Amino acid sequence: MSPNVFQRFFKTSEEPQLYYYCFVFPILMPVSWLFFFAELGKKSMLRAAELAVLADGISAPHPRSGCVILGTEGDEVAKAFQRGQGGVPSEVLALDEAGDLAQGSSVYVNLEPRHGLAAGDDETVAALVRAGVARVVVGLRHPVPQLRGQAIHALREAGVQVYVLGDAYGEGGAGAAAAEAAAACRLANEALLHRIATGVPFSVFKYAMTLDGKIATASGHSAWVSGPLSRELVWAERRRSDAIIVGGATVRNDNPHLTTRQDTGHFPMRVVLSRSLDLPEEANLWDTSVASTLVMTQRGARRDFQEYLRVKGVEVIEFDFLEPSAVVNYFAHRGCLQLMWECGGTLAAPALSASAVHKVMAFIAPKVIGGGSKAKSPIGELGFVEMTQALPLVESNFDKVGDDLLFTGYLPSSGGLAAAAAAAAAAPLQPSSGGRITTAGHEEQSVGARVRALPAIQGELRGDGDDDDGGDEDLDMELCTAECEPEPPAGSQHLRFYKAWDAYGALSNFAPFPIDMQAEDGTVERWPTVEHYYQAYKFAGVDLEGSRATYEAVRTAATPEEAAWRGRRAMNKSPQFVNPAWAEQKFEVMYRALEAKFRQHPGPRRLLLETSRMGEVEEGGLALFEDAPHDAVW
Q1: Are residue 297 and residue 326 in the same domain, yes or no?
Q2: Is the peptide bond before 224 cis (omega within 30 degrees of 0)?
Q3: Which CATH number does the domain housing residue 447 bear?
Q4: Residues assigned a catalytic role
Q5: HSE-up of 169 (CA within 13 Å, CB side)?
Q6: Which residue segment(s) compose the domain that 262 sits in?
Q7: Domain check: are 396 and 529 in the same one?
Q8: pLDDT tens digits, 223-248
Q9: Measured distance CA(327)–CA(151) in Å, rounded
Q10: What is the CATH number of the domain that holds 151?
Q11: What residue ranges are annotated as transmembrane (predicted)?
């Protein structure tokens, strides 16, 4: 092409728009985005990540979501975080706060909004579009494969500008500001990223040692190695965990409480691993009024002591062979996101050897106690004989905490947070533990081939309004009764679900699907979730002020998780407030609530009916089991 042609094509006034769109716009768009994010976005995205973790201690671990809205003048007009799974999304809360100021605004979220199979609705995307926001900046694509990219695509289809850190402009391409913000977004959901990448809960190994590497004196005394500020960080880490794991020696020597030092909110399960059940009859952990306790042992160990613990309200699980890998797989089944190992060296060594631990959280106190080989070290024998065998930690960091030093780093089982994020981003579309098909003997089978129809029905599960034929279809639901087996007969298949954000989360009682139920006076009440309704009706029909107050507190709880712990705690501490006929009525109440949910919401109904079609090709049929941590009735 001759220079004259170039001049005519690009320099003359005859083709100004073509010149602009072909050359100027492609260059200026990423540059303008870089400037826009560097000047306005970094602070807002970091703020969204900070907001997201405010749910720690309020609710059990769940995908952490924070939202910041900047008005048309660049000022912050609203902010919010999601309190728990099944709760109101952070974006919806922030939009409600912003009101008319959301029109033309910029919305910053550390995590892509949910939109698709796991939640089964489009509440967040619809709210953003309805509010007329101009752009949405996403810090992290949703790691759950069924949700990844769904909201981004839906928003763009609706005409909303969407920018994703690490996508088109990349962390390197968007500069240091975007890289820092993206790292903060990964850290806010490191447990979720590791869960998706590895298939098991994110595990943190915490210990405190002296400068000479001891966690206790030669006599076994260990309170306190670290200072008060370090202990506060430990309590905070417990609050963001599903379970705290110790060995039998810790129970015998320290008699710990393993609490979060808070009166309300989330209380992680205390877990004791002991093959022999050589445990004391009196221990702080056996008091389950404070928090639940689970003891894991090998089959047949001290059956009389097992019964003793169960009478006290302690859950006991037997394994054919108790080892760390079996423990993390068990908690993966229960939908856990994070485990905290506070064990001694005897248990820590096999946990590290089995790659059951992803991160180390080590406090180093400015103390020396000596004691030689009699004083215990944080980690027992690993069998290494050369320094080249040492486990290399990556992305390590030191912080000063009072007089102590806090070291954090990721083990090879993690590969580091960046590696976990990359692995999670490449995770295939298949159900995680919340959608596992297992036999009655708990032997896992791949469910990928059995859910080949799920991508096809994904769009239908968003609740698209009127359903011409689903409403009249027979749901054929059958709940377990008090006489039913907690597991199906040998040879049959069952699909386990529990968490609202997992693969089959739309089936969960915690899933954010409100139900309209007729009250005793004939009026219709709207309940936020099935869990709200079920927990509140424990106290319905009792003419006591405490019963009425508890009923209302549960009904208006901010999240289904809060409704659950309010209902359970009141039932345990004030049984006089509970309807005397609850044991017989609870199945009818649950059936009523579930029927309303599945008839009133086409998305969950279609997912439920799809599992029935899956059952038709399973030998022995397919049973749905809510994998609840407190009972196996359902």
Answers
A1: yes
A2: yes
A3: 1.10.357
A4: 91
A5: 28
A6: 196-415
A7: no
A8: 778 889 999 999 999 999 999 999 99
A9: 35
A10: 3.40.140.10
A11: 18-38
